[in-house]
């Protein structure tokens, strides 16, 4: 026994000694677990695993299955073609998934795999790709969501047809230019292989789900006269047969979405906007409505926090949902009879999926600041790991610690943040600080694994994430405080947070850096145009001359709602474009980055600021990632971005 103990001690010391700090190349070692779905008996959960492939510079997506008792996890597919959307058939015999592999010829089709063994076979051979699907509870039919496709040219090597645009909302990232192709519902009979169309026309359908008796389908659709000009989606119900007439279930003037049938089929739970008007700062309420019709009941009206991913309990007495609340994302249970809600998880972590399979047990997808997402069994508030895909990565690396902090802005409001302290750096040691700003703005920094924070901290920087006004997690009024007034209150909060960390003795006031992506890049531009004390900046996918973004990005509706048309309200547009009009005030060496094909925040936003700083002889550089959209999808580009961050901040900050 003494000999065995010695072996255990030695093996543990070897693992500890092998631990190392993160490097940009570690992007190839982080495995992404997502899209979990339970088997009918609740004994298994199927999910996807995305693994970076450095040789092909892409991500391999394969289907796995894990036992909900934690006993095993099994890989089911091994191809390089990629598989997604795993589902169990209602009898539990089949695992289905979508893939463009082999004979599917890059068109996403349905494949079936017998759980008893054997190769998967292609079930559908549609001309168009399948966007999403769901088995009917009786196992006889499958519901498909399929987007219309352009008719292909029959002549090879012929120039592409001109793109004809006549829509108000005409571009979107990563979809590109939008024509009149819409997503419709289809029902596929497994025995006869007959495909019936349920919807048609100029409207899109989404969030489609079967009723428990397999007779009806609930879905979300915006059927106003011009869906491009509003977000007025409603819940509709249609009988699952050809030529059936849809029935509108909800009539709220803004969005209703994400319907979920109660186990007895009498109610539908869904998410409803707070405001009756279009508002990008809105946060969803949890509501239920009788399927037969009637007034909805709001279950989260007094909560004042965003609700998402509602799931009925197995007995139908309550609904589990995820709540974003001041740096945390946790499971809340809403009692249908009493209208009371109870927090079911707590702590510094982020739960992004919850799947109840008994009245006391759920499978959740959860991550922590030093651990990428994995699947866990949740029972009585305790987590038990079901998957361990990132176990080696976590055990062989040192990570920054995450510490919550709060401070008050000049208006006396409490603002929350997270400070990532580099490994091996004790509290009380003054360090260079990077203010790293989240996008959105309607989002929040929370206690989750973030590779950017960890890689930057590994270089010896304190990383400060601050949930400025405009973020969610602090209530609707806090989020909407920046309506039509961008680059003002957010910058006040960010700078107040930096002042707090300097005063606390954590941050070196002479070594301050700043950066972010998307709205984080935009706020980087706003902040460096306001305060010159930052020695280095990295503005990713940002913009400063907001007037030039009108009609070139996907936010025209938001612009007109908040600022009005530029030709009528140039004073407002000029005000929110102040980083460009005050470019001579920017003294911070700035690295600009953007995807070449970004339609969310187009490259022009970065190009303009790069050109301005270049003209003013402020050190600057512009990096454009070829064929990339708003989010970079090529692993080597992630590695490249981290390497450039390191070099830029090392050059101008340290």
Describe the protein.
This protein is α+β, with helices and mostly antiparallel strands. An eight-stranded mixed β-sheet has the order 33-34-36-35-37-38-39-40, with helices on both faces. A four-stranded antiparallel β-sheet has the order 2-3-4-5, with no helix packed on it. Strands 6-7-8-9 form a four-stranded antiparallel β-sheet, with no helix packed on it.
Characteristics of this structure?
single chain; 654 residues; 11 helices; disordered N terminus; 4-stranded antiparallel sheet; 16% helix; 8-stranded mixed sheet; alpha+beta; 40 strands
**Secondary structure tally, helices:** 11
Question: What percent of residues adopt helix (DSSP H or I)?
Answer: 10-25%
Please state the overall shape, judged from the principal axes of the Cα atoms.
Answer: globular
Q: In terms of per-residue confidence, which ranges show pLDDT below 50 for 5 or more consecutive residues? A: 1-17
Note the main sheet: 8 strands, mixed
Approximately how much beta-strand content do the residues carry? 35-45%
Task: Give the neighbour order of strands across the main sheet.
Answer: 33-34-36-35-37-38-39-40
Topology, pairings included?
Blueprint: H1 2-17, E1 20-21, E2 32-38, E3 44-53, E4 58-67, E5 73-75, E6 83-88, E7 94-99, E8 109-114, E9 121-122, E10 130-135, E11 141-147, E12 171-172, E13 176-177, E14 183-189, E15 195-197, E16 205-210, E17 216-221, E18 234-239, E19 247-248, E20 256-261, E21 267-273, E22 284-290, E23 297-298, E24 307-312, E25 318-325, E26 328-335, E27 341-343, E28 350-356, E29 361-368, E30 371-379, E31 382-385, H2 391-395, E32 397-398, E33 401-408, E34 414-421, E35 431-437, H3 451-457, E36 462-466, H4 476-480, H5 489-503, E37 507-517, H6 519-530, E38 536-540, H7 556-562, H8 570-575, H9 578-581, E39 590-595, H10 604-615, E40 620-625, H11 635-652
Parallel strand pairs: 1-32, 35-36, 35-37, 37-38, 38-39, 39-40
Antiparallel strand pairs: 2-3, 3-4, 4-5, 6-7, 7-8, 8-9, 10-11, 11-14, 12-13, 14-15, 16-17, 17-18, 18-19, 20-21, 21-22, 22-23, 24-25, 25-26, 26-27, 28-29, 29-30, 30-31, 33-34, 34-36
Helix pairs in contact: 5-6
